[in-house]
Every structure is written in C-alpha cells, then in structure tokens.
Design goal:
It holds the Pfam family Amidase. This protein is an alpha+beta fold. The chain has helices at 19-25, 59-69, 110-125, 143-164, 171-181, 185-209, 238-243, 272-286, 288-304, and strands at 8-13, 28-31, 51-56, 96-100, 129-133, 214-217, 247-254, 260-266. It has one domain: Amidase signature (AS) domain (Amidase signature (AS) enzymes). The protein has an 8-stranded mixed sheet, sandwiched between helices.
Length: 305
C-alpha cells in the first residue's frame, strides 16, 4: 500500500494491527465499528475483539471501500446490517474535536507530540473547535479487561493446536494461551460484561456529554521501531478496539528518522461514515502530500550531490 502497488488492502485488528502499521507506513488505516465488516473466512484470534480493517492511500478510498464491503453475514454472528450513521460533518458546519489532557497509552515521543500539536493548530485555524478533555474515570484502566478477553479467547480458539503440536506454536502465542487458561470463568464473564457496559458509556460520553465529532489522539508513541523483533506499542489503539468504536489514522508528518507519523481519530459506534467525513476534512489540512514531496526532493538533491 505504501509503495503504491495496490489501492486497497485488508487487515485484522485485535488490539492495534491496522491503525498502528498504517501510521508507521504513512497510509490511511480504518478500523470500523465492531462487526461492521463480516469476518467470514478469517482465522480468529479473540472473536470479541477481532475487527476487519482497511488500508488505503486516502480517506475517500477507505470510505468508498467501506460502503462496498460492510454489512452482515449469517456465517459471522458478530456482524450486523444495522447502521445508525449520523450525517458526516464535512467542515461546513461547526466541528468539535477533543484532545485528551492525559494520554491513554504510553508517553508520546517529542516528534509525535509536536506533529499532533501543529495539526491541531491548523484545524483550529480552519474553524474547528479543539477542546481539551479528561478521559472519564469510569473507563479506568481497560488493560486488565483486554488481557483477560484476549488470552481466554485465544486459548479457546488455539489451545487444541498447542496441545497437539506445541513445537508449531510461537512462544508468544504459547504464553498467551497459557495465560488464558489461568483466567477464571468469573473473571472472563466480568470482563465481557464490562466491555459492553463501557462501550455504551463511551458513546454517551463522546456524543451527549462532550458533544464531540471525534477524539484526536496519537496512533502510536512515535515512529516505527527499529528491526523486526517488535511490532510497536499498541496501547494507543487498544482502548478503541476494546470499545468497538471506529477509528481512522491519517499520515501527518515525518519523524527524526524520516519515518511517518500519524494522527488517529476516534468516533462513536455505528457512526463510521460520520467519522470518515471528519477524517477526510482533517486529512485535507494535514499537508501530507507536501511532506512527501519535500522528503522526495531532499532525497533527490542528496543523490545528485
């Protein structure tokens, strides 16, 4: 996708595996509302967290593709035909975007923080209202809940494979399955109940209490990590996957190593088209094409010398 070889690619996100790599590669990543795209034929990891997402070159392509592929499927009982999409805010009306006072993930690297701050200033200059908000205490730390659901469901789906052929299962998956087998049924049931309750709470907080069109946060702490042994910190993506709400990341800048940095927008569940409209408005003001052009010109000049 980043190389321009294909116009559209699909990915799965159980924690952050659409939004984070899209940000690292300088492309648009879209994780829709949970169940919006049927997962028929996809090998599950944790069915209560698994999403199908899209990688595209721009937000308009993601919006077009989503209209084509979204919808229910009788073979995936998690998917749904239900849509409660509000009219997209295209910038012609007042737009209200929230920025969290304290991060939900690990600390941002300075370049990522600077890129988000500069983007927010451009959005505000073009008429958006940027509001600093506190993440509700009621949502608390979702990390333990996510871990319980992920590990238990991974153990259910893949535990038989580990028992049958332990040498074919990676150490990471082996550890995850064993962790899941250690979670009590009561703790798992509590985590699933909390997931439903907190998802409803978040939607009400975002739309009714804060009256936000979207939250603007980082998709990752910064640039992609060096090497292949670590895929990066997913803590900036995990809460929104757990809550099942739609998220979009758009590329906005280059970091100190010359690698892409992104901005992530979060919306309310079942308001995917509305969020995509906001993301397209933000994308138009991010200046990514100018960033790529300057980087390309700089590389050309370096080679000429």
């Amino acid at each position: 996708m980043s190389a321009g070889i294909v116009p559209l690619a699909f990915g799965t996100q159980t924690i952050g595996s659409v939004i984070r790599p899209a940000a690292y590669c300088g492309v648009v990543g879209f994780k829709p509302t949970y169940g919006s795209i049927a997962r028929t034929g996809v090998l599950p990891l944790a069915p209560s967290l698994d999403h199908i997402g899209l990688f595209t070159a721009n937000v308009a392509d993601a919006a077009y593709a989503f209209k084509v592929v979204s919808g229910g499927d009788d073979q995936d009982f998690h998917s749904s035909h239900v849509r409660r999409n509000g009219k997209g805010n295209d910038g012609s009306a007042h737009m209200r975007i929230g920025m969290l006072r304290r991060p939900v993930g690990t600390a941002m690297e300075p370049a990522q923080h600077s890129a988000l701050t500069q983007l927010a200033a451009r959005l505000e200059a073009d008429g958006a209202e940027l509001v600093t908000v506190d993440f509700p205490d009621e949502l608390g730390d979702m990390g333990a809940l996510i871990s319980a659901i992920l590990s238990v469901e991974a153990a259910v789906v893949h535990g038989a494979l580990l028992d049958r052929s332990p040498g074919l299962v990676s150490p990471v998956m082996t550890s995850l399955i064993n962790d899941g087998r250690g979670v009590s049924s009561v703790d798992y049931a509590r985590a699933r109940a909390a997931q439903v309750r907190l998802a409803h709470f978040f939607d009400h907080w975002l739309q009714a209490a804060m009256r936000l069109d979207a939250l603007l946060v980082a998709p990752a702490p910064g640039e992609a990590p060096v090497g292949l042994s670590y895929t990066g910190d997913a803590s900036w993506c995990a809460p929104w996957t757990f809550l099942g709400v739609p998220t979009v990341t758009v590329p906005i800048a280059l970091g100190p190593a010359g690698l892409p940095l992104g901005a992530q927008l979060i919306g309310a569940a079942q308001h995917d088209e509305r969020l995509l409209a906001v993301a397209e408005w933000v994308e138009a003001r991010a200046g990514w094409q100018d960033v790529k052009l300057k980087a390309s010109t700089s590389r050309d000049n370096t080679r000429d010398t």
